[in-house]
DNA sequence: GTTTATGCAAACGATTTGCATCTAC
DNA sequence: GTAGATGCAAATCGTTTGCATAAAC
């Protein structure tokens, strides 16, 4: 974990960006909450606990910076908020997501399942693929089990 | 085309929504600009040419309505604007998109290329898929040709 | 006639920006 | 010392909402 932080710091340095405590704090929060899909506001609130003087604008600016450097990926599940996801180290491609339309949970698939599909697209559409976004909308395992158990929970979350 | 409009009108009627001229105008615009990926503002401007008294709020409300009825799909390419795409008649799934990071053009893939991938996901992740969003980011054919100084690549894109 | 839809303007929330101040280098 | 980064507040932009009026049924 410490290694990973250091490597990100080096990336910033290499790209000649200054290493401010705010930037470090933001990266730390992302590392500590890797499984969640934090919005800028989420990151801001986490940091505020320890460093109350940070500004939301700085969070936005830093997240944009990290997106440019391909350290994080900016995703949008259609709810009007951008979320920021640490990219797996060395990952060429963005991972996939499973969004539950019942409970809103988001699961990640790290494997790249699109190899064959991309070959087809590159060949038949003459499109040179650089990255992809794949999200499945459906019912997660927990909600499936809930549904078959008792037909009560109906907290629809439409996208 | 006229048939399609009528069928959509019937869908509205069946769901007991009123058939207002505004709603019809919005559907017409969507039908006339099927290849584009119109934002609410785009739709608004197109309609304004012929019916200047329409309000932007009505456009938003109608597009939301059409999304609920699964007549259109709401997409987001990450530029902060929602776009609305007519769904192919009878399509169970959302079509795929090819977004060019050079020129910003958006191409559509109507075929469903995810059959096998979805089987894998349902089986290995126990996730019941209802719909999907798949977007490839890369370089479109035209921009590739531009980059290589006009290298010819005449193979037909057939499937 | 009742219910639903509309248009307008105001409200809203997420994100961006201008600017004076600060800080990493 | 200087270029770049920050914090704050104000501005911006897409979208939603309240409400009185109008139109579809």
From TrEMBL, chains A, B:
Pfam families: FUR (PF01475). Its cofactor is Mn(2+); Fe(2+); Zn(2+). Binds 1 Mn(2+) or Fe(2+) ion per subunit. Transmembrane segments: none annotated. Keywords: DNA-binding, Iron, Metal-binding, Repressor, Transcription, Transcription regulation, Zinc. GO terms for molecular function: DNA-binding transcription factor activity; transcription cis-regulatory region binding; zinc ion binding. Fe cation binds at residue 132. Zn(2+) binds at residues 100, 103, 140, 143. GO terms for biological process: negative regulation of DNA-templated transcription; regulation of secondary metabolite biosynthetic process. The keyword Zinc-finger does not apply. CDD domains: Fur_like (cd07153). The keyword rRNA-binding does not apply. It comes from the Bacteria. Signal peptide: none annotated. InterPro entries: FUR, Fur_C, WH-like_DNA-bd_sf, WH_DNA-bd_sf. Belongs to the Fur family. PANTHER family: FERRIC UPTAKE REGULATION PROTEIN, ZINC UPTAKE REGULATION PROTEIN. This is Fe2+/Zn2+ uptake regulation protein. It comes from Caldibacillus debilis GB1.
């Amino acid at each position: 974990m410490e290694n990973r932080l250091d490597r990100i710091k080096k990336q910033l340095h290499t790209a000649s960006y200054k290493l401010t405590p705010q930037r470090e704090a933001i990266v730390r929060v992302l590392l500590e909450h890797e499984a969640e899909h934090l919005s800028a506001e989420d990151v801001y609130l986490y940091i505020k606990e320890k460093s109350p003087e940070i500004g939301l604008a700085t969070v936005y600016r830093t997240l944009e910076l990290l997106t440019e450097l391909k350290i994080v990926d900016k995703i949008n599940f259609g709810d009007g908020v951008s979320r920021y996801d640490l990219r797996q180290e060395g990952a060429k491609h963005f991972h996939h997501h499973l969004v539950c339309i019942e409970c809103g949970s988001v699961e990640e698939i790290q494997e790249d399942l699109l190899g064959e599909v991309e070959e087809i697209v590159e060949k038949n559409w003459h499109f040179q693929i650089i990255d992809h976004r794949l999200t499945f909308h459906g019912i997660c395992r927990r909600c499936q089990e809930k549904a078959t158990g008792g037909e009560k929970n109906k907290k629809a979350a439409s996208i």
